[in-house]
Amino acid sequence: MTHGTVVVTVNGEATDVPEPATVSTLVSRHTGREITAEGLALDGSRLGLAVAVGEEVVPRSAWATTRLAAGDAVEIVTAVQGG
Questions:
Q1: Which of 12, 15, 26, 82 has the smallest count of CB within 10 Å of its CB?
Q2: Bridge partners, residue 6, by sequence
Q3: Which pLDDT score, from 0 to 100, does residue 51 have?
Q4: How far is CA 62 from CA 55, 59, 66, 67, 83, in A?
Q5: Which residues cross the membrane (predicted)?
Q6: Contacts of 73 (CB under 8 A, 6+ apart)
Q7: Can you say whether the dihedral through the CA atoms of 48, 76, 61, 31 is positive or negative?
Q8: Residue 67 pairs with which residues in a beta bridge?
Q9: SS3 state of residue 21
Q10: For the chain, where are the alpha helices, taking DSSP H only?
């Protein structure tokens, strides 16, 4: 059940996320794709992302269960090929 929103900082910008807020819901909003409980794109495509909350990398398998709290600093890093 949604009870409102929580404000977190994502890549340096304040962002409202609906409660209960998880890393998975944030990644879904960021990518525009549905995310499975295992942290994979529902459509089977590769996400190419890593997520850290408070400077701790969150394993993809924990995205659905990692709750976000007001004021959390989240970094979403996209893999880029090249050199």
A1: 82
A2: 17
A3: 98
A4: 15, 5, 6, 10, 30
A5: none
A6: 8, 9, 53, 54, 55
A7: negative
A8: 22
A9: coil
A10: 23-31
